[in-house]
Amino acid sequence: MAEPTTGIRRLPDLVNDVAEVLITEAQVRAKVVEMAADLSRDYADRDLTLVSVLKGSLPFMADLMRAITIPVQIDLMEVSSYGGTSTETSGLVRILKDLSSSVEGRDVLIVEDIIDTGLTLNYLQRYLRGKNPASLRICALLDKPARRLASIEIDYRGFTIPDRFVVGYGLDYGEFYRNLPYIGVLKPEVYTAS
Ligand code: IMP
Ligand code: MG
Which residue in 65, 76, 123, 139 is deepest, having the highest Cβ count within 10 Å? Predict the structure, then answer.
């Protein structure tokens, strides 16, 4: 394999970098099934499109859609909200990947991994409302209300978590740790090392 050309990069240690598991794999699984049951009930006989916000929502989306028991379509968007540092949002939202199909007249559910400041969702909500869906709601696995800057009504909420930077189940630090099957907090030295 080619040697990295710039500097020496410390690769994460998936096991030893984790200080604490906040939400276990089993807890995540149970919650996703519960949320899917609510959605299957609420959207029965509707025209549901799940819009996942990449990359963080990928595992949540994949598990949620498979637990939903009614017909559903999916679409994917990718936005970047972190022009700041790897743990602080900049408030700037850029669309890296737009919807593939029209959502006009459809019941759209935004599927998000986490709502922190709410700035990303606030932007996305306004953007998607402009596409004239029949309805627009929000489903978020994690809600971190302590740092909210834009008020957001979350229609389907998995867990409310304290003001800590979390990784796993899609959530990253420096693009790593997304593949952890649980949600956890890294050791302080991991955050300060980069
Ligand atoms: P917001 O715009 O501040 O609500 O941030 C939304 C996005 O920031 C999320 O979709 C995540 O990608 C990222 N984010 C916010 N908090 C965390 C965290 O604790 N861990 C990892 N990513 C986070
Ligand atoms: Mg995200």
Answer: 139
